[in-house]
Amino acid sequence: MAYFRVLSTQIEKIYSLLKKNEDWLIIINADPDAMGSAVALQRLLRYRVKSVHIARINTISRPDNLAMIKKLHIHMRTWEDGMKEKYHKFAIVDSQPHHSPIFKDIPFSIVIDHHPLPDKNNPPLLAEQYHFDVRPDYGATSSMLTEYLYNAEIKPGKYVATALLYGIRTDTSTFSRHTIEVDLRAYHYLTRFFDQNLLTAILRSEYFIQWLPYFSRAFEKLRPCGIGQFTYLSDVDNTDILVVIADFFLKVYGLKYIIVAGINNKNAVCIFRGSKYNLGELAQKAFSDIGSAGGHAALARAEIPLSVLKSGKNPIKIDFRRKNFSKELHDEIEKFLFLRLKQNGSSKKITK
Q1: 26: Cβ–Cβ under 8 A, 6 or more apart, which residues?
Q2: 319 by DSSP, 3-state: which?
Q3: Number of other CB atoms surrounding residue 209 within 10 Å
Q4: From CA 166, how far away is CA 141, in angstroms rounded?
Q5: Could you give the strand order of the β-sheet that contains 108-113, starting from the edge strand earlier in sequence?
Q6: How far, CA to CA in Å, does 335 sit from each of 25, 28, 218, 304?
Q7: Mean pLDDT over all residues of the chain?
Q8: Rounded to a whole number, what is the distance in angstroms from the first to the last CA of the chain?
Q9: Among candidate residues 69, 67, 88, the one with its CA nearest the CA of residue 77
Q10: Contact 30, 65 (CB under 8 A)
């Protein structure tokens, strides 16, 4: 049995898209898996085109992500509309064209991802000649890019290998959520080339000291929500804080799932983490009629504009001119989110 799937046809298809006089741009929604995948694809393309750069559409604020960029020398540009005219071809990894309005008008020539496909009525926008490889069974897109480098007979340097290894580690939560054998094989293969000291430095950069009061608030507000737990953090400077705290609670023995909520940029944001229950389904049931909601079984997210929040038949009155909301208003928002979750499935076992 081959160590990885044989991708000779796919590699040749990618190489057929490349021309020496062309500039390529890899566009990502930057997180560890996306960044690891992007630098690997950049390595695959680098010596067959004029240039290949990476651009991110999001702001990076999590300390581990910032440490990854610094320690592994990942060079990224911030996406701007004018970039579309400056590059000949575009690629996207760890995401798909329908995942963001920014992506919708870009004719991608390469799409490599592990998220679920869109429905047949929402086809992706692709270039006339393209390579499309989406495998939702994989735990990480970094595992897929490890396969590509292996098939192309490219040994990853320590920075690329460490980036891919960390991407697999984060998206599989160190193999504690959805993982298949190829993720384990890719991780094992990359241990031949990665740098342990660099990985350790990244792993030790999880929190900012200014985030610590949010942990105190999360413990104080924690309460049962059906078979899971719910906590509300009021105003947060960045939604990454909600993600970090939700991931922290995953380490609590016996916790079925956690929902961490807060207010950021005129939206109520809920982060779902857990196991054995379909949290993407819960998020959709609770909030898809009034906001954006969905995700995987083990991790999901919902964002609801504050302008649509109602308590009973009456809208929750919010003065957006105020920088911070009163305790009474936060209590009302918290109650609204909590009751929505209780009424839409969090009190019952959700389908796997």
Answers
A1: 38, 41, 42, 52, 53, 54, 55, 90, 91, 92, 93
A2: coil
A3: 7
A4: 12
A5: 77-78, 51-56, 23-28, 89-93, 108-113, 126-134
A6: 45, 36, 16, 14
A7: 90
A8: 31
A9: 69
A10: yes
Handedness of CA 27, 31, 36, 39 (dihedral sign): positive
The model's pLDDT over 209-225, given as tens digits with 9 standing for 90+, comes to 889 999 999 999 999 99
In whole angstroms, give the CA distance from residue 315 to residue 309. Answer: 6
- Give the confidence band of 176 by pLDDT, cuts at 50, 70, 90: confident
Percent of the chain with pLDDT over 90: 70
Q: Are 87 and 21 in contact (CB under 8 A)?
A: no
Residue 23: CB partners within 8 Å, gap ≥ 6?
49, 50, 51, 52, 53, 86, 87, 88, 89
CB atoms within 10 A of CB 196: 11
Give the pLDDT band of residue 317 (cuts 50, 70, 90): confident
Q: How many CB atoms are located within 10 Å of the residue 253 CB?
A: 4
Q: What is the DSSP string of 191-244?
A: TTT--HHHHHHHHT----GGGHHHHHHHHHH-EEETTEEEEEEEE-S-THHHHH
Contact in structure between 163 and 140 (CB atoms under 8 Å): no
Give me the pLDDT at residue 113, please: 96
Question: For residue 227, what are the contacts with CB-CB under 8 A and spacing of at least 6?
Answer: 256, 257, 277, 346, 347, 348, 349
> What CA dihedral angle connects 251, 257, 260 and 261, to 10 degrees?
180
> Do 334 and 232 touch, CB atoms closer than 8 A?
yes
Length of the chain: 352
pLDDT tens per residue across span 114-124: 998 876 556 66
Reference 125, options 153, 149, 102; nearest CA is: 102
Q: Over pLDDT 70: what percentage of the chain?
A: 92
From 199, 205, 125, 214, select the one nearest 168 (Cα to Cα): 199
